[in-house]
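Case study.
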Amino acid sequence: MLKIETTHDSNFTTLHLIGEVDASNSIELDEQITGLVESGAKKILVDGTKLEYISSAGLGVFMSYIEDFQENEISLVIYGLNERVYQVFRILGLDQLIKIKSDKEEALRV
Amino acid sequence: MIMKHELKLYCDTTRLADLRKFLNDILQNTSLSDIEQHQVTLAVDEVCANLIIHSHGCNAKEFIKVEVEKENGILKIEIVDRGEGFNIIEYKEPEISHVKATKRKGGLGIILVKRIMDRIEFEKIGTQNTCRLFKILKSK
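After joint prediction, the assembly is written out as follows.
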């Protein structure tokens, strides 16, 4: 089960991922991010504090935006991942390609 | 002592949550750390998701058999299906940089499986395909 909540602040938008991202629902994450980009978001925070699981389907969604975001100067920062989920990003070396911070304060400083 | 558990997984990606629950319950009773348990579950999820989507076209009438066995300090997970099959050994996974550049959303799963598991086997006999994933258990 995955629930995605969005909160808007004056200069950034946060996607709160609650539950598990796998092959059955990664499209929802993809659609949410696409929606934010289309609405002109320039700074996206992904709150991973309640993310219990992510498989390659979800990791692939984040990967697929890296280059577009660099070209269009959109910043995406993930924060609050628990150790188990963070280690999955690390196995693939995605911690080198995606900005991952420990908490919201650090994420906002990026 | 031999411990054996079996799950019949129907080819619908929403069933992957059931697979993870099945594995979590079994792996809790092994010497694997919390992080290792999570990763083994992920590896099996990746192989099954791949089969469900690419070999079975998400046809929920078809199924995959997942069997978990612990023997002599080795955890063995056997994933059996019928059909075309996916030879994980022969599959050449893409480079991470290539995945990023081409914006493809696939290909990462098999890299994860190969990095997480200690040994992988694939066997095809007639129409039956068997993928075996092994993880060495540390003695408690």
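Observations recorded in class. The helical segments of chain A are 26-38, 56-71, 83-91, 104-109. Chain A has a mean pLDDT of 96. We will return to this complex in the next lecture.
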